[in-house]
Amino acid sequence: MDHEQRAYRAALGGFATGVTVVSTAASDGFHATTANSFTSVSLSPRLVLVCLTTGSRTLGAILDSGFFAVSVLGSAQEDLSAHFASRDRAPGSAGFAGTRFTLDRHGCPRFTDSSATFACRVHEALPGGDHVIVVGEVAAYTSRPATDPLLFHEGRYARLEPAAALELAG
């Protein structure tokens, strides 16, 4: 990565994001990767998007299967995020050893204790430079609103500070 790319990446890091693990089930087993490029697209129909690196195993498995799940990680799931961000983990289903998950109706893993999960059918895949923008139609979801989110900011994990009580002038 050259100086200009590092500077651009650092500037982008000023935008705090949530952290997700995107997963799927393919003929050769489970696949997953950590992603912070996740957002809602539409309420009706229910659409979300995630951006995945072109040529990644997880992207290929998602496009082959036509289904994926997104687990929005809570603050206690930093280890899970780091695990699926690592290039050193075992490929395929072996990389899921020791993790806690359930399967959605399409067999895609959704991680236990996440603040939200989304079971998706691939709606569209669009080229986006060195990534592919995968738009998914949400078939099912879960939500645990009391779960504090895991955040990523300036190249490291972050957590929300408790909100300060507001004092109203009387």
TrEMBL record:
Occurrences of domain Flavin reductase like (ranges): 12-159
Key words of the record: Monooxygenase, Oxidoreductase
UniProt GO molecular function: monooxygenase activity
EC number(s) per entry: 1.5.1.-
Protein name, UniProt field: 3-hydroxy-9,10-secoandrosta-1,3,5(10)-triene-9, 17-dione monooxygenase reductase component
Organism expressing this protein natively: Nocardioides marmoribigeumensis
Organismal lineage: Bacteria, Bacillati, Actinomycetota, Actinomycetes, Propionibacteriales
